[in-house]
Amino acid sequence: MSNKEEQSDVEARIIEAAKRVFINKGYEAAKMGDIAAEAGIGRTSLNYYFRTKEMLFAAIFGQLMDALLPNIAILVDEEGHYTEKLRKLIHLYLTTLSKNPLFPLFVVNELHRDPEHLFNTIMKEPSRVQPMLKLQRLVLSEMEKGTIRRVPLIDLVANLISLVIFPFLIRTPLSVVFTEDKNSSNVEEFFNRREEVVYNLILDFLDPNNNNTKK
Fold first, then answer.
1. pLDDT tens track for 67-113
2. How many structural domains compose the chain?
3. What's the CATH code of the domain at 91?
4. Which residue range is the domain that position 32 belongs to?
5. Is residue 214 a part of any domain in this protein?
6. Same domain membership, residue 194 and residue 148
7. Pick from 168, 142, 161, 169: which is nearest to 202 by CA?
8. How far out from the chain centre does Cα 33 lie?
9. How do residues 109-161 score in pLDDT, each as one tens digit?
10. How many CB atoms lie within 10 A of CB 52?
11. Prediction pTM value
12. Cβ contacts of 201 within 8 Å, gap of 6 or more
Protein backbone atom coordinates (compact mmCIF):
# COMPACT_ATOMS: atom_id res chain seq x y z
CA MET A 1 0.00 0.00 0.00
CA SER A 2 1.36 3.42 -0.99
CA ASN A 3 1.70 6.25 1.51
CA LYS A 4 -1.21 8.07 -0.14
CA GLU A 5 -3.42 4.98 0.06
CA GLU A 6 -2.47 4.46 3.68
CA GLN A 7 -3.37 8.07 4.55
CA SER A 8 -6.69 7.69 2.76
CA ASP A 9 -7.40 4.49 4.70
CA VAL A 10 -6.63 6.17 8.05
CA GLU A 11 -8.77 9.17 7.16
CA ALA A 12 -11.71 6.92 6.26
CA ARG A 13 -11.26 5.03 9.54
CA ILE A 14 -11.30 8.30 11.50
CA ILE A 15 -14.48 9.46 9.78
CA GLU A 16 -16.26 6.18 10.52
CA ALA A 17 -15.08 6.36 14.14
CA ALA A 18 -16.33 9.95 14.44
CA LYS A 19 -19.75 8.92 13.15
CA ARG A 20 -20.04 6.26 15.83
CA VAL A 21 -18.89 8.61 18.60
CA PHE A 22 -21.18 11.44 17.47
CA ILE A 23 -24.14 9.05 17.35
CA ASN A 24 -23.40 7.45 20.73
CA LYS A 25 -22.43 10.60 22.65
CA GLY A 26 -23.81 13.46 20.60
CA TYR A 27 -21.75 16.13 18.91
CA GLU A 28 -21.43 18.41 21.94
CA ALA A 29 -20.39 15.66 24.39
CA ALA A 30 -17.99 13.95 21.99
CA LYS A 31 -14.29 14.58 22.62
CA MET A 32 -11.45 14.34 20.13
CA GLY A 33 -9.84 11.81 22.47
CA ASP A 34 -12.95 9.64 22.21
CA ILE A 35 -12.70 9.69 18.43
CA ALA A 36 -8.97 8.90 18.46
CA ALA A 37 -9.57 5.93 20.77
CA GLU A 38 -12.45 4.69 18.63
CA ALA A 39 -10.26 4.92 15.52
CA GLY A 40 -7.38 3.15 17.27
CA ILE A 41 -4.91 5.99 16.83
CA GLY A 42 -3.27 8.62 19.03
CA ARG A 43 -4.41 12.22 19.44
CA THR A 44 -1.36 13.47 17.55
CA SER A 45 -2.26 11.32 14.56
CA LEU A 46 -5.87 12.47 14.72
CA ASN A 47 -4.81 16.12 14.76
CA TYR A 48 -2.70 15.50 11.67
CA TYR A 49 -5.86 14.66 9.73
CA PHE A 50 -8.50 16.70 11.55
CA ARG A 51 -7.67 19.44 14.04
CA THR A 52 -11.20 20.04 15.33
CA LYS A 53 -14.55 18.34 15.79
CA GLU A 54 -16.06 20.85 13.39
CA MET A 55 -13.68 19.72 10.65
CA LEU A 56 -14.72 16.12 11.28
CA PHE A 57 -18.39 17.02 11.24
CA ALA A 58 -17.97 18.86 7.93
CA ALA A 59 -16.03 15.90 6.50
CA ILE A 60 -18.77 13.44 7.48
CA PHE A 61 -21.57 15.53 6.06
CA GLY A 62 -19.49 16.37 3.00
CA GLN A 63 -19.00 12.66 2.39
CA LEU A 64 -22.76 12.19 2.28
CA MET A 65 -23.28 15.19 0.01
CA ASP A 66 -20.52 14.09 -2.34
CA ALA A 67 -22.07 10.63 -2.60
CA LEU A 68 -25.52 11.96 -3.51
CA LEU A 69 -25.63 15.43 -4.98
CA PRO A 70 -23.38 15.25 -8.07
CA ASN A 71 -25.20 12.12 -9.17
CA ILE A 72 -28.56 13.80 -8.68
CA ALA A 73 -27.47 16.61 -11.01
CA ILE A 74 -26.42 14.10 -13.67
CA LEU A 75 -29.66 12.18 -13.25
CA VAL A 76 -31.84 15.29 -13.65
CA ASP A 77 -30.00 16.32 -16.85
CA GLU A 78 -30.35 12.88 -18.46
CA GLU A 79 -32.79 12.30 -21.29
CA GLY A 80 -35.67 10.04 -20.43
CA HIS A 81 -39.09 9.81 -18.81
CA TYR A 82 -39.52 10.98 -15.24
CA THR A 83 -40.31 7.41 -14.14
CA GLU A 84 -36.81 6.32 -15.19
CA LYS A 85 -35.29 9.20 -13.23
CA LEU A 86 -37.44 8.36 -10.22
CA ARG A 87 -36.23 4.77 -10.21
CA LYS A 88 -32.59 5.88 -10.51
CA LEU A 89 -33.04 8.43 -7.71
CA ILE A 90 -34.45 5.81 -5.34
CA HIS A 91 -31.67 3.40 -6.32
CA LEU A 92 -29.07 6.09 -5.64
CA TYR A 93 -30.40 6.85 -2.16
CA LEU A 94 -30.85 3.23 -1.13
CA THR A 95 -27.43 2.22 -2.44
CA THR A 96 -25.73 5.13 -0.66
CA LEU A 97 -27.48 4.37 2.62
CA SER A 98 -26.71 0.65 2.34
CA LYS A 99 -23.03 1.50 2.01
CA ASN A 100 -23.23 4.09 4.81
CA PRO A 101 -25.71 2.72 7.38
CA LEU A 102 -24.67 5.23 10.05
CA PHE A 103 -25.61 8.26 7.93
CA PRO A 104 -29.37 8.29 8.64
CA LEU A 105 -29.00 8.22 12.41
CA PHE A 106 -26.16 10.76 12.28
CA VAL A 107 -28.25 13.23 10.24
CA VAL A 108 -31.43 12.70 12.29
CA ASN A 109 -29.51 13.24 15.54
CA GLU A 110 -28.03 16.47 14.26
CA LEU A 111 -31.35 17.72 12.90
CA HIS A 112 -32.82 17.16 16.33
CA ARG A 113 -29.83 18.55 18.24
CA ASP A 114 -28.99 21.62 16.19
CA PRO A 115 -30.63 22.02 12.75
CA GLU A 116 -28.96 25.42 12.29
CA HIS A 117 -25.53 23.81 12.64
CA LEU A 118 -26.42 21.32 9.92
CA PHE A 119 -27.78 24.04 7.66
CA ASN A 120 -24.69 26.19 8.14
CA THR A 121 -22.48 23.21 7.29
CA ILE A 122 -24.35 22.75 4.01
CA MET A 123 -24.24 26.44 3.14
CA LYS A 124 -20.47 26.62 3.54
CA GLU A 125 -20.55 25.33 -0.03
CA PRO A 126 -23.75 26.81 -1.55
CA SER A 127 -23.09 24.97 -4.82
CA ARG A 128 -24.10 21.76 -3.03
CA VAL A 129 -27.70 22.97 -3.01
CA GLN A 130 -27.90 23.37 -6.79
CA PRO A 131 -28.62 19.70 -7.64
CA MET A 132 -31.59 19.71 -5.24
CA LEU A 133 -32.92 22.91 -6.81
CA LYS A 134 -32.61 21.32 -10.26
CA LEU A 135 -34.55 18.31 -9.00
CA GLN A 136 -37.22 20.60 -7.59
CA ARG A 137 -37.56 22.40 -10.92
CA LEU A 138 -37.89 19.06 -12.71
CA VAL A 139 -40.72 17.97 -10.41
CA LEU A 140 -42.57 21.28 -10.79
CA SER A 141 -42.15 21.11 -14.57
CA GLU A 142 -43.67 17.61 -14.68
CA MET A 143 -46.58 18.86 -12.57
CA GLU A 144 -47.12 21.74 -15.01
CA LYS A 145 -47.18 19.28 -17.92
CA GLY A 146 -49.67 17.08 -16.12
CA THR A 147 -47.46 13.99 -16.21
CA ILE A 148 -47.52 13.82 -12.43
CA ARG A 149 -50.21 14.81 -9.96
CA ARG A 150 -50.05 18.25 -8.41
CA VAL A 151 -49.13 17.71 -4.77
CA PRO A 152 -47.36 19.91 -2.23
CA LEU A 153 -43.62 19.36 -2.55
CA ILE A 154 -43.39 18.90 1.21
CA ASP A 155 -45.70 15.86 0.94
CA LEU A 156 -43.63 14.31 -1.83
CA VAL A 157 -40.33 14.89 -0.02
CA ALA A 158 -41.70 13.62 3.30
CA ASN A 159 -43.05 10.46 1.66
CA LEU A 160 -39.84 9.72 -0.20
CA ILE A 161 -37.55 10.38 2.77
CA SER A 162 -39.66 8.35 5.19
CA LEU A 163 -39.94 5.39 2.82
CA VAL A 164 -36.21 5.38 2.07
CA ILE A 165 -34.64 6.34 5.39
CA PHE A 166 -36.91 5.11 8.17
CA PRO A 167 -36.24 1.37 7.64
CA PHE A 168 -32.51 2.03 8.12
CA LEU A 169 -33.22 3.87 11.37
CA ILE A 170 -35.18 0.92 12.78
CA ARG A 171 -33.16 -1.89 11.21
CA THR A 172 -32.38 -3.48 14.61
CA PRO A 173 -35.99 -3.41 15.90
CA LEU A 174 -37.14 -4.81 12.57
CA SER A 175 -34.63 -7.62 12.96
CA VAL A 176 -35.61 -8.37 16.55
CA VAL A 177 -39.38 -8.30 16.00
CA PHE A 178 -39.66 -9.98 12.62
CA THR A 179 -36.65 -12.29 12.52
CA GLU A 180 -34.84 -14.54 14.92
CA ASP A 181 -31.56 -12.78 14.43
CA LYS A 182 -30.57 -9.36 13.15
CA ASN A 183 -28.31 -10.89 10.50
CA SER A 184 -31.11 -13.04 9.15
CA SER A 185 -31.47 -13.30 5.40
CA ASN A 186 -35.07 -12.16 5.88
CA VAL A 187 -33.86 -8.67 6.75
CA GLU A 188 -31.48 -8.61 3.78
CA GLU A 189 -34.28 -9.72 1.48
CA PHE A 190 -36.44 -6.93 2.86
CA PHE A 191 -33.82 -4.31 1.95
CA ASN A 192 -33.10 -5.94 -1.40
CA ARG A 193 -36.71 -5.55 -2.51
CA ARG A 194 -37.10 -2.12 -0.93
CA GLU A 195 -36.21 -0.29 -4.15
CA GLU A 196 -39.14 -1.77 -6.06
CA VAL A 197 -41.55 -1.22 -3.16
CA VAL A 198 -40.61 2.45 -2.73
CA TYR A 199 -40.67 3.05 -6.49
CA ASN A 200 -44.19 1.68 -6.86
CA LEU A 201 -45.52 3.57 -3.84
CA ILE A 202 -44.14 6.92 -5.04
CA LEU A 203 -45.25 6.21 -8.61
CA ASP A 204 -48.79 5.58 -7.37
CA PHE A 205 -48.68 8.73 -5.24
CA LEU A 206 -47.69 10.81 -8.29
CA ASP A 207 -50.10 9.17 -10.72
CA PRO A 208 -52.28 11.99 -12.17
CA ASN A 209 -55.19 9.52 -12.32
CA ASN A 210 -54.89 8.69 -8.63
CA ASN A 211 -57.86 10.14 -6.82
CA ASN A 212 -57.33 8.26 -3.57
CA THR A 213 -55.60 11.24 -1.93
CA LYS A 214 -57.18 14.66 -1.74
CA LYS A 215 -55.26 17.38 -3.52
1. 777 788 888 898 889 999 999 999 998 988 888 887 888 888 888 87
2. 2
3. 1.10.357
4. 1-51
5. no
6. yes
7. 161
8. 27
9. 888 878 888 788 777 777 878 888 899 999 999 999 999 999 999 999 999 99
10. 10
11. 0.78
12. 159, 163
Radius of gyration of the chain (CA): 20
8 A C-beta contact, residue 175 and residue 63:
no
Number of residues in the chain: 215
Q: Which amino acid is at 10?
A: V
Alpha-carbon separation of residue 40 from 23, 58, 67, 142 (angstroms): 18, 21, 26, 50
The CA distance from 88 to 122, in Å, is 24
86 contacts: CB under 8 Å, gap ≥ 6 = 199, 202, 203, 206
148 in Cβ contact with 215 (< 8 Å): no
CB neighbour burial string for 15-36, b if at least 16 within 10 angstroms, e if fewer: bbbbbbbbbeeebeebebebbb
CATH number of the domain bearing residue 12: 1.10.10.60
Beta carbons of 122 and 129 less than 8 angstroms apart: yes
Count CA atoms within 13 Å of residue 167 on its CB side.
21
